[in-house]
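hiii so um. not sure if this is the right channel but i have a protein structure encoded as tokens and i wanna go backwards to a sequence. like what aa goes where. can anyone help
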């Protein structure tokens, strides 16, 4: 179901459409979702948000309070928007989860050394979903995309090229 052009920028009309049509899966920016009057969607299986950071105030209203999954669809545009996903409960609002199939992520310190679980570092992203680069921006491409110094293939996925996300994350045990 796709909202009409004149309706898609009106949160109340999008909300009403989702209820009327019995939407079972949706992906939307948290800023749109945040202005819905409630989150009771009886037919919903998965409500996924991404494209921008999901604030704790929104997660605490949704996660674990309804029978459907609420998912943090983390990912930069350079990696096809959803790179990782996770939210299991109201306290998982900061958890970006594990890479989606076909994506490989590394967490490295400022010297490029992979960090141990519990340590913080920059999220580096690899896999076939990476963009080929920025249009007519060779200097930016050279700074943001680089040859993978750790491995060229991971579980059958070509990871010879990585992207500097610039996002600091903490590597969990799992």
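sure thing!! here u go:
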């Amino acid at each position: 179901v796709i909202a009409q052009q004149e309706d898609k920028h009106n949160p109340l009309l999008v909300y009403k459409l989702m209820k009327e049509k019995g939407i079972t899966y949706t992906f939307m920016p948290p800023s749109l979702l945040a202005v819905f009057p409630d989150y009771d969607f009886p037919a919903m299986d998965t409500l996924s948000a991404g494209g921008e950071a999901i604030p704790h105030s929104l997660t605490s209203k949704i996660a674990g309070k309804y029978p459907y999954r609420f998912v943090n669809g983390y990912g930069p545009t350079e990696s096809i928007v959803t790179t990782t996903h996770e939210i299991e409960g109201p306290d998982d609002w900061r958890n970006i989860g594990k890479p989606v199939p076909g994506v490989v992520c590394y967490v490295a310190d400022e010297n490029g050394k992979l960090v141990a679980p519990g340590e913080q570092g920059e999220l580096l992203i690899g896999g076939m979903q990476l963009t080929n680069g920025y249009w007519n921006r060779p200097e930016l491409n050279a700074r943001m995309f680089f040859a993978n110094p750790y491995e060229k293939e991971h579980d059958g996925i070509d990871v010879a090229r990585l992207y500097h996300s610039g996002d600091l994350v903490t590597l969990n045990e799992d």
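oh and Helices lie at 11-21, 30-33, 56-62, 138-144.
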